[in-house]
Design goal:
Elements lengths: L1 H56 L7 H5 L3 H68 L13 H16 L8 H11 L5 H10 L22 H15 L6 H7 L4 H12 L3
Helix pairs in contact: 4-5, 5-7, 6-9, 8-9
């Protein structure tokens, strides 16, 4: 019985020690797990904190150093290309502006030169008419049909005599060509009434022409149109006769019937 009590006591001790061992193992396991978990949390906190700062908490517009360093060569080249294109565009704008200014300056210079040439040509025409008139005065002493004023200038001269000659030629084949007569007379420096009046004496203002567009009985000449014919006849009068009609010119122009020719032609000039 004593032996049984001893054995029972040893069994209780053994069970107690076994239980203590199990508890110790469990405690160590829980502590290890806690330490492991705590370590893991610290590592993740460090890593995730940076990531959150990078993606969530960084101020808007701020670029991280890693992002700047990770720029690719292609990105850098793209920026350089944009800068170069902007520079070229600016230079091109300057070049175009300079070209436009240069063209405008050239056009202005050309306009001024054209105006000066027109004024010079006008003065030459006035001087030519004055010289032709002076020569006529020196030869014949007076103007039978009255004077013509060239000093008003080309524009005013042509406007006045275009209207007067068109009124005179109204209803005839030469109607509407008053400006051609006026311009040709201005250029030749002669009386603008002379050629239209001769056309009436010779062909009734172009109604009876023995040659094409020859309304003046002018040799055997023919012309392709009225404007060409008018300019040729006016230039011929200036070259072969003078400023305006005269009795001696009638003798040269129409020898067989110069007296009537002079009277009729002068009468027509006075109607214009």
């Amino acid at each position: 019985m004593v032996t049984r009590r001893k054995q029972s006591h040893r069994g209780v001790v053994v069970l107690t020690m076994a239980a203590a061992c199990v508890l110790s193992v469990l405690a160590v396991g829980f502590l290890g797990f806690g330490w492991a978990s705590a370590g893991s949390h610290d590592t993740n906190a460090t890593t995730f904190g940076l990531e959150r700062m990078s993606s969530e908490n960084r101020p808007e517009g701020e670029v991280s150093p890693e992002t700047v360093q990770d720029k690719s060569n292609a990105d850098m080249l793209a920026v350089e290309d944009v800068a170069e294109a902007a520079s070229l565009q600016t230079a091109s704008s300057r070049d175009v502006s300079a070209g436009i200014d240069e063209i405008a300056a050239e056009e202005e210079a050309a306009r001024i030169a054209a105006e000066e040439e027109a004024r010079a040509a006008e003065q030459r025409a006035i001087a030519r008419a004055d010289a032709t008139r002076s020569e006529y005065y020196a030869t014949f002493g007076s103007l039978p049909a009255g004077d013509v004023d060239f000093s008003v200038g080309r524009e005013a001269f042509i406007a006045e005599w275009t209207e007067r000659i068109d009124n005179y030629l109204f209803g005839s084949p030469l109607a509407g060509h008053g400006s051609t007569f006026a311009e040709a007379a201005w250029e030749a420096g002669i009386d603008p009434r002379w050629s239209p009046a001769i056309s009436n004496t010779e062909s009734t203002k172009g109604r009876v022409c023995f040659k094409s567009h020859n309304a003046w009985g002018w040799d055997q000449t023919h012309w392709p149109d009225w404007d060409t014919a008018i300019r040729a006849h006016v230039a011929g009068l200036a070259r072969g006769y003078g400023f305006t009609i005269s009795y001696s010119y009638a003798m040269r122009y129409c020898p067989p019937n110069y007296d009537n020719w002079y009277r009729d032609t002068l009468g027509q000039m006075q109607q214009i």
